[in-house]
Design a protein that fits this description.
By secondary structure, this protein is an alpha+beta fold. It has one domain (about 5-90): 2-Layer Sandwich (Heat Shock Protein 90), CATH 3.30.565.10. It has three helices and four strands, in the order ββααββα. The chain has helices at about 30, 50-60, 85-90; strands spanning about 5-10, 15-20, 65-70, 75-85. A four-stranded antiparallel sheet has the order 1-2-4-3. The longest helix has 11 residues, at about 50-60. It is globular. It starts with a strand and ends with a helix.
């Protein structure tokens, strides 16, 4: 059964979003450098266009955030997104 886990929490002065699945995983040793590239796909899905991660990463970068990826073949993938929380960082 496919499972998607979504979490949101505060870590120090950052907001963190976590997306994890139990899918096929991504071979990060082979694909880490290409993962967020335009038109890069890592599945055999004929409908895949390879722009989703590219756009997502660019938007997160534009907002001053960062993305981390953890993946294990046959077990799934985790995307961890960090945003600076202006409410927390502007407090004195």
């Amino acid at each position: 059964i496919p499972v998607l886990e979504i979490e949101a929490y505060q870590q120090n002065d950052q907001l963190v979003l976590l997306f994890a699945d139990n899918g096929i995983g991504i071979d990060l040793e082979r694909n880490r450098d290409k993962l967020f590239g335009m038109y890069k796909t890592f599945s055999n899905n004929p409908d895949a266009r390879g722009i989703g991660l590219f756009i997502t990463k660019n938007q997160i970068d534009a907002m001053g955030g960062k993305v981390e990826v953890e993946s294990e073949l046959g077990k799934g993938t985790r995307f961890i997104i960090y945003f600076n929380n202006p409410i927390l960082t502007n407090q004195t």
